[in-house]
Structure formats: C-alpha cells, structure tokens
Write a structure and sequence with these properties.
homodimer, 403 residues, alpha/beta, Rossmann fold, Dihydrodipicolinate Reductase, domain 2, 2 domains, 9-stranded mixed β-sheet, 6-stranded parallel β-sheet, 15 helices, globular
C-alpha cells in the first residue's frame, strides 16, 4: 500500500483541521470529505486541495460516501453522539475508522463498536491525541521504568473555560449546547483518562471496575449568558442541566483509584488536572512538579521539565526531531494521525484500540447514571470478556505502541 | 472571671504542647493534667510549671479529675475515638470542653455531643486550628467579599507522609497504628474540611447532604514496614486495611461539591490540597496561585501571596501583630486556643461549635460506610434539626467569629 486513501466525516473546526493535516502526509490521499453542511464541505475541500493539489469528493451522507468511494480509512470528527454509528457503518463497508474523542450515550453503543470490530476483523482506532502529549508520554515511560514505585492513585480531567463556546453553540452549529442543556455527567472524559488508562494497563492486566460521579450545581453557563447575551438568546431561555464541576472516582481491578474532573463552565485557566502517585512519589500537573523518594532530596517538589528532558518517551524523541511545534496541540495531533495511518498502512494493531475506545467512552454513560442516582456506584462491563486478565487482549504494534 | 482554669486530657505530643501553650496565657491557669501514662503526666506538669511557676495536679482518670477539680474548661487531646465520651463527661460535670480534631466512630457519637450540649447549656468548641490559618482566613474573607463570585466547588484534604509514624505507632503508644490497621475511610477529615465548611456556611444557610468515598488499595504502609523493620515488627505481622488514598465527594444543600482527600501512607510533600472555585475564578493551594476574571488579566495564574497581603482576615491582622511565628503551625495553634479561652471567659458562642463539630466528624463514619459499600452515597443527619435553614443556628460571637 503506497498511499492510504482516507475520508473525513464531520468538517467543523476539528474535522477540517484533520483533513488538511492528513493531506500533508506523503503516504495519504484525502479522497473524500463529508458533512451535513455544504459550506463546511467546500471549506475542507479547499484546504485539502490547497495543500495536496487534489480536491476530494464531497458528500452530505456518509453512507453514500462509504458506498461510492474506495477508501482504506475514515476519520470521524462529527458530533459526539454520532461517532459510533458512523464507525460501525464504516467497518461494515470494509473501511477502517478512527474517531475523534467524546463519550458514549449508552453501553449498547460501546458494545456496537466492539462487536462490529470483532465480527468484521477491522481494527479501528480511537484518536485520543493527549495519549501522545509529551508529558503524558514521559509519565508513561517513567511509570514503566518503575520510577513511581507501585501506582496507587491518578487524577486527570478536562478543565477548560468553554462557557462562551457552549452557550453560543446554536450560533456555531455546535453540539455542545445541546449536550450541556440536557445531560449531567462527565461528558468529555478521555483527554485525561486516556493517558492514565495506558499508565494503569487498563484492558491489559487491569480494568475499570466501578465509578461514582457527583455533579456540582449549574450556574456558570446561565450566569455567563445572562451577563453577555440578549434576553431572547437561546442560552437565556433554558436552564442548562450539566453541573459546572463533575467529579468521578473510578476504582480499578488492581486497586488503583482514578479521580476524574470535568470543569468547563466557569472562568479558569486550562488544565488536564493530572496527578500520578505511587509508593515512590508523586507528580502534579498544576504544580508542574514531581517529588520522588529515590532522589533522596526529601519531601521537596522539583520542576518536572528536567525529568521530561531525561525521560522522554521514544515516540516523543523520534517525532520531536521533525519539529512538532508547527502542528496542533504541541504536536500530538500529528502523532495521533500518523499512528492511525500507520495502523492501516503497516497493518499494525492500533495504539488505542476498540477495547480502549469502548471502556473510555463508557465512562460518560456510567457517570451520567451515577449522577442521576445521587452518586451511586455504577459497574463497568468488561468489553474484553476476560482477555484483560488472561493476557490475550491484543497490544499495539509498531512504533506507536503505548502498551 | 479573671483567670480561666483549664485542665488538659491526653498528654501525648499534642496535648503536652497545648498545656504548655495555655500556661503562657495571662488569663489562664492550667490547673490539672490527665493521661493514662504517668511519664506523660510528669512531662506535661514539668512544662506547665516551668512556664507558669504553678504545677498542675496530675490524674490518670478524667472522671476523677472532673469530680475533684474546680475547672472552667478542659482541652481534650486524647486518642481520636475517646474525644466525644470525655467531652460528654465534662459537660455533665459543668465543664466546657474543647477537643482536638479527629473523626467519629459512629453517628450516635456525634449526636451524644450535640444532645449533651443542648441539655446542659454548655457550649463546647472544636479545636480545628486550620480554620485560623492565614490562607484559610484570607480565603474566607475573600469569599465573603464576593471575589470568587458564586462558589460551585471546593477541594481540601490531608496529604501528609506519616507512614513511619503510623507503622511505628505501637512503639510510640500512638493510636494511629490501630486505626490504620482496622479502618478504611477518611479517618482525619477536618483540617481541610473545617475551613471549607465555614466558607460554604455549613450549618448556617447550607449543610452537607451526602457523601461518596472510594479508597485506593493499601500498599504504602506494608511496603514501608517491609523495607525498614524486622520481620517480627508489629507492622510486618498484619495487613493494614486503610486505603492509601481515600477520595470523598460531599454534596451540599446549596449545590456545591467538596472533594476531600486523605493521603498519608506514601512518600509525598505535605499539602491540604485546597481548591476554591466560583463563577469568577479559582484558587489552588498546590500551585499557590489564583485566577480571577474580574482582574481582567485573562486565564493566567497569579501568585496568591499578593492577595493574602491585600485581603488578610481581620483575625489574622490582629493576631499577626503579636508575632505568631513563634507559635505552633504558623500561629494558628495560638489563635485556636485563644478562641477557646475567649469563649469561656467572655461567654462568647465559640467560633467552631458543637454543630460544626458533629457534622465535620460525621464525615469519617459516613466515609467508612461508603467505602464498605463500594462507594454508595451516605446521607448526613441534620444535627441542627432545620436550624441551618431557618437561620437559628447560633453564630460565633466576639472577635474569633468565622460565620
């Protein structure tokens, strides 16, 4: 396979960016793009043509695209609730899907991707770019080297002041508005949880067992709308249901706990709220610091930067040579797309596979259920049917492997 | 009342320190001290005599002390599980108790102090020194000034590497060993929770409604003991039950959430894990930084020190003039003991009263229950029987008021 033919479904800001990025790859042809809106199709097609010289075909229906186009892979960057159904349709058409991140609306949705992958033999990928962040990769590397000792607790999350984007969602044809208007739970769990899951060997020697979620009141979105928009603005004509801060605690089979925070409705600096803690010490993202007993420096925080320089993951070392800064989100967007292309081109089992995908997005469903039940613990299905325990869950293959 | 006569029960490191500190007060006579161990009685009596010139009477039985001594107040710094029963005995003897911090073993225990206080008319105090820490006081002051906007979420906890003290507990006659050997929950919740409770007006316009708690595995204590002690050391002859990191989420009647962390069994720097978040911004203890929208500086952290200089609480301003640094824990030990003496001498309702006490220590019982039930939510009793809602819960009086 000299060139991998890829289509892109969902051409909002993120999807159009992916289409353009993929069209810069030597081994990729972006052959088709798809969205419900024609202006988005034209915009994405323009950007791909400008970069690669080849204009992709445009579709408003992904089913038609899968039927007519001879594609190897499809990248799905549509609204959260449509990822899985589009991925299932792709697999049934013999096309390898990768989806952008989000959370599931039902456990059945999670099973649909797992079962379709198992039945078709297609190996889809989940495009959690943060798994390829420099810090996250260095922490994975340091954990595997044993520098934290035995891991006991992790924290992570998505803390990002999005109140203006959310409340203006209808103006921007963005699905966030609707999700925040009607749901309540951790509706965007994987930026923090993906990297911690690989650190904890989830689905490969470990698994999520249970989750509790408790939501704070909602006030940030309506407070913002009231202050900035007219009385007849859509955001001023409903009470958003999504709690401002949703905290969840996941218990793992290995006894580790993961504290997960969703915090996007109030003014605050960005953070993924990371903490990694073992018998030998602790790392804190917000402090950008680490303290390890084996360093013999006492209970004193040290800047994490020095540790990254020393313990960069081989994946980061390799790709940082190409100058990752020019790519989105500090380079991790480039790596995650390259990993997807590699999985198709070289038939490598993807770095983040369908079992990771299903168990990570299941967090959203279970979190919503727990919030609705006042914090009652909810149990995770074992999407691997015991493979996590007997060692038979497939591992990532090739240079992008995170297992 | 010219001199307040105070006895001290429980003369380990903390109790002996309180006895000595109180004996330096111009308006206090430390008239009696009590412990199960004679060497501790002699040590505390020596320290009080050295400071004040007067040797207190010594007792091994607090009941005998309450019967024989004509005391106004008693400070209780015994083991966690004995605070309430000693306080109840004191109130029944007409003596005003104040207890050191800890957590309850049963809800009945919490009610026993509330009901005895209501029946006797005695107004006991809970000695949470962290409520008088400089940062905590400044945050209280800033919250009341509205600088955080509407509060939506708090975090707090007790993160302190105590594994050596815990595992050597039997050598040191310390009750921690036994608690960590047999319990599992947030067994020491109030250093973080006390200050956040005053910020959230708990028991006075707000209350704790429910809690979920999830404990990580235990490995820190046994790992430490195995590495440092002989095979026949007590810590190497049992498996400790207390999870290394216990996270709890409390939901308040006002819709706010409090994330509470107990983390004392592994190597790490000290922290009370503070976070205070409202519609106008956020403060983070571990970052020692704050970000407020109204400052018009964007989503950028600023050092918290400048804000403390600007917004120090009146209590801190007043007492910092006397040079608090020479006292324990940055001066807050002095202030909390002075508040207790003031409540007796000037008949002021105490800054931290029996309703605060009962609801704060109830966290331990409910946390243990939730952990035992896999994280199932547990409901808080309303120890005020509705007074929190109708505005009749008594407030602190005098210069130490935190309400």
């Amino acid at each position: 396979m000299e060139k991998v033919r890829i289509g892109v479904v969902g051409l909002g800001g993120r999807g159009a960016y992916h289409a353009e990025l993929l069209s810069t790859f030597d081994d990729v042809d972006v052959t088709a793009v798809c969205d419900l809106y024609n202006d988005r199709i034209e915009n994405a097609a323009d950007r791909v043509e400008k970069t690669s010289g080849k204009r992709p075909a445009g579709y408003t229906d992904y089913r038609e695209m899968f039927e007519k186009e001879d594609m190897d892979g499809v990248l799905i960057a549509s609204s959260w609730t449509t990822h899985s159904r589009i991925a299932v349709a792709a697999m049934k058409a013999g096309i390898t899907p990768a989806t952008e991140v989000g959370g599931a609306a039902s456990i059945e949705e999670c099973y649909s991707v797992v079962k379709t992958a198992e039945e078709t033999g297609i190996e889809p990928m989940f495009l959690e770019n943060c798994n390829f962040g420099r810090e996250e990769l260095a922490l994975l590397n340091m954990t595997r080297m044993g520098l934290f000792g035995e891991i006991v607790h992790c924290q992570c999350g998505y803390e990002h002041c999005l109140r203006d984007e959310i409340t203006r969602g209808n103006e921007n044809r963005h699905y966030r508005f609707n999700n925040y208007a009607h749901r309540n739970g951790d509706i965007y769990p994987t930026h923090g949880l993906g990297p911690m899951s690989k650190i904890l060997k989830i689905n490969r020697g470990n698994r999520f067992v249970s989750i509790v979620s408790v939501a704070s009141k909602q006030t940030g979105l309506n407070t913002h709308a009231k202050k900035h928009f007219d009385k007849d603005h859509p955001a001023n004509n409903l009470i958003f249901t999504q709690g401002d801060v949703v905290n969840s605690i996941i218990k793992c089979a290995g006894g580790e706990t993961i504290l997960l925070t969703h915090d996007t409705s109030n003014f605050r600096p960005y953070s993924r709220a990371g903490r990694l803690q073992g018998t030998n010490g602790i790392w804190l993202e917000d402090k950008n610091a680490i303290c390890l007993e084996s360093e013999n420096a006492g209970e004193v925080w040290k800047p994490f930067g020095e540790y990254m320089d020393k313990y960069d993951h081989p994946i980061w070392k390799k790709f940082s040579r190409i100058g990752l800064d020019k790519y989105g989100h500090g380079g991790m967007d480039f790596i995650v797309d390259a990993a997807f292309v590699d999985s198709i081109k070289n038939r490598n089992h993807p770095a983040i596979d369908v079992y990771d995908w299903a168990s990570w997005i299941a967090v959203t469903v279970l979190s919503e259920q727990s919030v609705a039940l006042g914090g009652a613990p909810q149990l995770f299905p074992d999407f691997t049917n015991g493979s996590w325990l007997d060692g038979t869950t497939p591992k990532g293959e090739g240079e992008f492997c995170l297992d």
